[in-house]
Amino acid sequence: MRARRPPLDAAATEKITRPRPPVAQGGPPGASPPAVKRAWLRTWQAAVLIAVIVVALVVGGLAGAELYARHRAGTLLVAVAECVVEDNATVSFGVNPPFLWQHITGHYTNISVQTAGRQVQAAEGMTADVTLKDIRLQGTADSKGTIGSLTATLSWTSEGIKDTVAANLPGVGSLVTGVSTDAAAGTLTLEAAGDNRVTARPVVTDGDLTLEVLDVTGPFSKETVQDALNGLTTKLNENYPLGIHADSVAVTDTGLVGRFSSQDASIPNDEADPCFARL
Questions:
Q1: Do β-strands 123-124 and 89-93 pair in parallel, antiparallel, or remain unpaired?
Q2: pLDDT tens across 13-67, in order?
Q3: How far out from the chain centre does Cα 276 lie?
Q4: Structure confidence by residue, pLDDT tens digits, 133-150
Q5: Strand, helix or coil for residue 218
Q6: Cα separation of 192 and 178, whole Å?
Q7: What's the confidence (pLDDT) of residue 118?
């Protein structure tokens, strides 16, 4: 008889296979966890870089537009201010909200104007420090816009007062050799050759700055001098634009300081006022 082979152990009949490495989620088959992490990190860094570049371009564009708008508006308003005061001027703007938004909407929250001090119209030796608020350049048939409020400090030197009197009062003005002030008494004195003088007190009457003659020493009567000075101050008061009127005046050691203002002023919308026609 043929001998039977003993049965093989069942475990020995199983195939011996090499276990496969685990496949990481989201990565290629066979990729190791560190490689997957590096790939994810590179993707994240690229996204951040793109976002930074986009933000930088947007911010840079807005900054450039802001500077351009400031330059354009500043150039225009400087020209208007210099035309009005007949002197060099600088203009600055408020920053809240951003000026670009103010420029787009035509609603400026705050504008400051500073003049060089050579003159303000016919008043020689005068400096204007002006603040305008709530400016709305939204034109109508009668106006190019409105100014919510305007405040101005006008500083007038003693030398400037002398030169203004000399230039605007023919005959009488040429006799004035100097102007002195007395801050304690609130007066100024126009001095002429030969111990002649006129003492006057600056006052505000119904929104106009006037010079009230107190004493005259010399060949002219008090009434004659008062009439002459009234003509000068009337000329100065009538030339102020935008409804500007005097609120107060003070005598200092170096001249006069006046406070002026205007509320809800309408910006002229006609060619008769060449200074505002360019707006």
A1: unpaired
A2: 444 455 555 554 544 555 556 666 666 666 766 666 666 665 655 555 555 656 6
A3: 17
A4: 999 988 777 788 999 999
A5: coil
A6: 7
A7: 96
Q: Which DSSP symbol is given to 174?
A: G
pTM of the model: 0.75
The residue assigned the tokens 């119209």 is 121
Distances (CA, A) of 162 to 134, 172, 179, 191: 37, 12, 6, 9
Tokens of 190: 């126009």
Would you state the torsion angle of the CA atoms of residues 265, 266, 271, 275, taken in this order, to the nearest 10 degrees? Answer: 30
- Joined tokens for residue 30: 């066979």
Residue with tokens 């003693």: 158
Task: Quickly tell me which residue has 């030398």 as its tokens.
Answer: 159
- Determine the Cα–Cα distance for residues 123 and 161; give it in Å rounded to an integer: 7
Residues with Cβ within 8 Å of 60's Cβ and at least 6 positions away in sequence, in order, are none
More confident residue, 102 or 209: 209
